[in-house]
Design brief:
4 copies of one chain form a homotetramer. By secondary structure, chain A is mainly alpha-helical. In chain A, 81% of the residues lie in helices and 0% in strands. The longest helix of chain A is centred in the N-terminal third of the chain and has 28 residues.
């Protein structure tokens, strides 16, 4: 599975940090059902707060886009997040016994703030590509995890979660975000972008975001 | 016609600047048909560039919103602008003989940049309310102009434009933006907001944005 | 010791979070000399990265200031940080055996990024006051800690650090930042600012920043 | 006179827009003394408002810098602007009979807002280089104008203004800003930066900023 050339290169550059993220104990626990329910519910609560800031980050991508195509793609993601994804998340939490009022009152954990605020600052202080590089580990990493667990899972306990990210809808989103990244890079830097110094900065942003995602899983294990 | 309490107060505070905007010669020319066609086409071309930055400004409002309700309302506006409004604009221009390739190549006039960049900076440098105060003259002023010309127009030449802004869809949008402004003010400053020093700053932002809108009409008259 | 009315109120509102910050085991270890040297050196390295982003945050305050006075005060802080504080920090580290090349290569820890990026986003997404509310726990908390340890310390091991923050220069800075906060609040919201809903948002920002400072100390203990 | 390679290339790409700016009638009037005094005083008032936003723009450059060197250079400019330049400007205006209270009350003209807000948005929405590209026409164009008028002027009427920008201090600043631009480009894009698509975007930003500077001079002629 590949979501595009740039993602492949960034993932490779992130090396062990990437492995620590996509094969984290939390992730394995989703696949083999050994993740304690309390940890999962705790994660869902934090993920609600995460989605609010994640939506803001994609809205910032609209602001920083270089042309109408980029604007439209990012705006469609904002729309999907706010009009659909969050409602689904609320429904999923309600099923799991967490009412929306409780979600709204969730106190944001430091590991959660660390990732989303890093993304926001990467976007505000950098440009469209810096923002995408910070967003990519989340969007595409979840896609990679979902696709792998669809095949490898040995338990049905978290099948819904796995299907949400491993299913075709989300996989299609990942391919389009991967393409957005490839296209945005070539549009600004030409086909040789990976030889430019700025590419190292983007890979560094991607790797730091990846490490902050590791912290997010880690937090998930400690309600 | 009123789009809410805050708008009424800001408009009143803007005084003659507001009159100079909503009763500008360009506007009167739309109503009585005396606006030269070349001026209108020139205005349409600039308005296309305007809409791009206007969409960015509403996306910035999503970023700066204080809660999910505010985020959702602003995101719906971004969606409406990028997914519908701009397509309508492109269609309207095509009918008028301006193909989209020409729109994309439009060189942005200084009076155009002045307004949209003022809005963007009001948002980036200030908060959600400063951004709304800078956006309000455009959104709500067009509503006021459209509603008045629906009644007062003496020519059918620009009936489509007038119907677009005077029609029920746009008027409903104006009422919801007016309400968003009222609600956002009370949510942050309570019912006595108009007595706070910050209110004067917001009125100043609104008035400066109004003057920049006057400049936009003025530019429209000089292709 | 008081650095102003707003700080007193915010600190009170932060309650136990504030205590957890200013009386953290790391802090007590600076006072009684029980903080392991390795932990201190690790903290110094992270603090170097911190100062870079902290300087950026004060530069953002210049961008978001409401008048020339506010701009000048924030610019003076940027100047002090970049032209003096960082050089002092580099000298202090060199004395402790950490050359500047090593400082530059420090990998930023998540707990470090969490605080500084939270501050940056508070500033970018909010206004000048939101930014000050996020900066205050660091600036003024270090002042409070320094002043207390000047009196209470039972060891000379970290006397230089304590003198840096407990000494008159830094205490004067704290008073002027406290005054800047008080003045900025009254300038925008009048003397009754603490009764406005927006005040609760500012206190929430202050409290969250305080909790992220607790995380920073916690990280200091775990090289 | 050259302030660096990138500036030379951008100026060339801006072509006639650059000529329209540096050889504007306002500029020629400063050299031959035919600029009416009222126009000059009007310009000075607007320039005061300009300097406030110009200082904010350089503070934003500190926020968006890629390393400590870039941060320090931009912070030194902020410091110079707020601590020195603005005081000189106030003194110059006082001599010309405009007290500072009057400067503070100046109503910002649209042509003034157009340039500064374009710069701010270029910075907020783009990256460090986009911000520099938008700032360059002002900083370096004034240097070019000053240097030329030092040699070519046929009147002493505006000798102080000419000396301020044609003098060695300002010329040295121009050389260092030109070097900052060259270095920042190479640091991110390598020596072949002028062959990348992003270079065209930067040149477009530079050219649009140049046109907005033309508008500023034009405004100067019409008090």
């Amino acid at each position: 599975m590949s979501y595009g050339r740039a993602f492949d290169l960034m993932r490779e550059a992130a090396g062990r940090d990437w492995e620590a993220y996509v094969a984290h104990r939390f992730v394995e626990g989703l696949g083999d059902g050994k993740l304690p329910r309390a940890a999962f519910l705790h994660y869902l609560r934090q993920d609600y707060v995460f989605l609010v800031h994640f939506s803001r980050a994609w809205a910032l991508a609209v602001v920083k886009a270089g042309d109408l195509d980029e604007m439209r793609q990012c705006a469609a993601t904002v729309h999907a997040l706010l009009a659909e994804e969050m409602s689904l998340h609320v429904a999923l939490c309600a099923e799991a016994g967490i009412p929306e009022t409780e979600l709204l009152a969730t106190e944001e954990r430091a590991e959660n703030a660390a990732y989303t605020r890093f993304v926001m600052d990467a976007g505000f202080s950098g440009d469209f590509l810096a923002l995408l590089a910070a967003l990519a580990p989340c969007v595409l990493g979840y896609g990679e995890i979902g696709a792998r667990l669809m095949v490898e899972r040995s338990s049905e306990d978290y099948a819904d979660w796995i299907a949400a990210y491993g299913g075709e809808d989300y996989q299609a989103l990942c391919r389009s975000v991967g393409l957005l990244l490839d296209t945005a890079l070539e549009r600004r830097y030409g086909p040789g972008y990976a030889n430019l110094p700025v590419w190292r900065d983007l890979c560094r942003t991607f790797a730091q975001a990846t490490r902050l995602e590791v912290g997010f899983w880690q937090m998930g294990l400690a309600p």
